[in-house]
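idk why but the lab printer keeps eating my pages so im just putting this in chat instead. protein + zinc ion:
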Amino acid sequence: MYQNQQNLYNFKLNGANLIIHHKPEFNTQYTSIELPFGGLSKYLLLDEKIINIEPGSAHLLEHSVLDTEDNNFFSYFMRKGARCNGYTHLASTVFSFEMVKLDLIVLQEFLYHIIEGEVNNETLTKQKEIILSEINSRNPFPPIIKHGLKKILQNEYNYFTVIGESNDVENLDKINLVLLKKYIYSFNHLDLITFGPKDPNEIIDWFKNIMKLNSDKSQGKIKWDLNNNNETSGLVVCDKTDLTLLMIFKEKIINNVQMIKKQTIMRTFMELCIEGFIKINGNKLEAHMDYFNNLGISIFMTKASSEKEFIYIKSLISKSESGVTNNLNNDTLDLIKTKIISNLLAQYDYPDRISTQLHWLSRYNYSLDDYILMVQNVTTEEVNEHIEYLFSHIDNNLAY
Ligand SMILES: [Zn+2]
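predcted complex ->
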């Protein structure tokens, strides 16, 4: 259970961020290392120079970092008692490391491998092949979502897939990737979050020492906002043959940190409202919704069970402003708040795959308490206003 930050330690050192959540009752120590390089990273700013980043770069680098010439990376750490992995998200790359009775020497070896390990031509070529077969064997999105995303994102779509499309990956320039590795994978960019029983003071000393030894290493600046097409927009996509409906919203990208937090909270509310709205209005409607909640993109998908339902939902969506927000009263809002907060707290209790949300909060130097307070203070008027704002941007002409 979350205890008002009593067991939460947060340090910033030379741009790096360390968060310790002391959990004496755990056996395993869960650690994740985040770097600000994800699918949507488009530019690296280096002094005065701007280096373009091709779609799929962050993902290929993540694969390559976890590969060694002898194919032995995971089993090497497994023999030392640590289980590790890597994931590429839209705004970041995360490497995870789990160990019963954390040995900081082993974690340090892992960390140094991530940051300083060199990627070479052979590894990049090998991992390119692996990713190409990943792309060919499964599409990152079902066709209807792909269609909607391509319409709303246009040429940014390939970045949004994180993995890239086949020809993006084929054309990735190895020299550029080595350069990106060198400047982005830096100690100064680290965001390290760890949960578990290890004595926080030991971890803090260990971290301070590492940062002291590496404080002079060069670093690049990452800019990952989507500059083109920076407008709020929304569209409805319908597939009559399998009775699927999709709503996609893309919000204007903002740089003000306070606004970003606010926007994310509002979107979370909106998602839960719309989810409830279809269920409430439709009575027997079994509407299933999926959504992504990243950097301004929200996707709502629902499958009707009959043509009648399909038409009904479609009409609800298109006269939008009138329908959605009417359902939001204070009781519903309280329910939604409870849901959001308990989801947040659960991440602190089951950190086996430490969520990007925690990294996201720490990157903005924000505590969970502050965030929860912000969620608690949201009013029905604010949510209604935000939903209406988004729905007013729906372009009903873009049907599938
Ligand atoms: Zn992969």
